[in-house]
């Protein structure tokens, strides 16, 4: 099974092979999963994706809308300005997969961080094996501006 994961300021989108957006994907214990990860700002990487996946990626405006209510309003400035600023100054993300509810510093990750630079010319591929039951969170471990601490998709992968 292949999963497509895209990063944006400040979150991840999770797409299955048919290009359907998912909040959560459930696997059987022992499954082997291929992850194709990309920065939604990396044009070169997007060109390398299958057409149905590329076409399913929301516009930058739609991705920005996802931040409303999920990312706390800053005490100074507004969210939109901070996002523009982050796009310029901190364009890169990374993807780690770790057990839900745990700090990544404590280990137990399913996937050590893979970089998702904005100037990547191709997506990054990784393999995971679902060797332990539980819920896993997608998380960015590269500082990417104001919303970085909220850049995670809690319990997005579930091994049953
Ligand atoms: Cu990030």
What do these coordinates show?
This protein is α+β, with helices and mostly antiparallel strands and 160 residues long. The protein has one domain: Immunoglobulin-like, CATH 2.60.40.420. The protein contains 4 helices and 9 strands; from the N terminus they run E-E-E-E-H-H-H-H-E-E-E-E-E. The chain has a 5-stranded mixed beta sheet, with no helix packed on it. A hairpin with a 2-residue loop joins strand 1 and strand 2. The model has no long low-confidence stretch (mean pLDDT 92). Bound molecules: copper (II) ion (CU).
SSE map:
Blueprint: E1 2-8, E2 11-15, E3 25-27, E4 32-39, H1 43-47, H2 51-56, H3 60-65, H4 79-89, E5 93-99, E6 111-116, E7 124-129, E8 134-139, E9 152-159
Parallel strand pairs: 1-4, 3-9
Antiparallel strand pairs: 1-2, 4-7, 5-6, 5-8, 8-9
In short:
This protein is α+β, with helices and mostly antiparallel strands and 160 residues long. It contains four helices and nine strands. The protein has a single domain, classed as Sandwich (Immunoglobulin-like), CATH 2.60.40.
């Amino acid at each position: 099974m292949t999963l497509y994961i895209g990063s944006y300021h400040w979150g991840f989108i999770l797409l299955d092979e048919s290009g359907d957006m998912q909040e959560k994907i459930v696997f059987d214990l022992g499954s082997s999963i291929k992850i194709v990860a990309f920065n939604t700002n990396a044009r070169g990487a997007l060109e390398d994706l299958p057409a149905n996946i590329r076409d399913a990626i929301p516009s930058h405006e739609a991705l920005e809308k996802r931040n409303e209510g999920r990312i706390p309003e800053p005490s100074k400035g507004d969210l939109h300005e901070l996002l523009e600023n982050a796009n310029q100054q901190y364009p890169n993300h990374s993807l780690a997969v770790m057990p839900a509810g745990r700090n990544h510093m404590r280990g137990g990750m399913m996937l050590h961080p893979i970089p998702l630079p904005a100037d990547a010319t191709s997506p990054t591929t990784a393999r995971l094996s679902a060797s332990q039951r539980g819920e896993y969170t997608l998380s960015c471990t590269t500082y990417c501006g104001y919303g970085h601490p909220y850049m995670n998709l809690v319990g997005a992968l579930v091994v049953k």
